[in-house]
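Appendix B, example 12.
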Amino acid sequence: MTMTFINLPVRDLNTAAQFYRALGFASDQADLDGDTMVFTISDSTRLVLHLRSGFESYTGVAATDTETSREVVVGLSAQSREQVDDLVDRAAVAGGQSLGPGMANGPMYMRGFRDLDGHQWSFLHLSS
């Protein structure tokens, strides 16, 4: 099975961990272990949060300044339109920035948000 690992730099690991737990992402790590924390999004997808300095050491380059640019938009599927809305609403309540109402385009429904560190996420549902 192919696994996907989404690696993101964060300013504060504790605060970021609280944010992603509020979205329902689970971590086996109860406490911080160095400068990295891993969350399970699904059976095949993990979110790996790194303190910014650790991320830069890992990649060998400076992390993108999310105030002025985007390097990537993380897009994840949801099981329903309601789940899309629920996830984005939970992100906004936890301190993230909703990017507006949902958009429908044929069978696709999508909404996005920016997390506490400015990383852009989209949740989408494709109806059959």
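The radius of gyration is 15 Å. The helical segments are 13-22, 52-59, 81-93.
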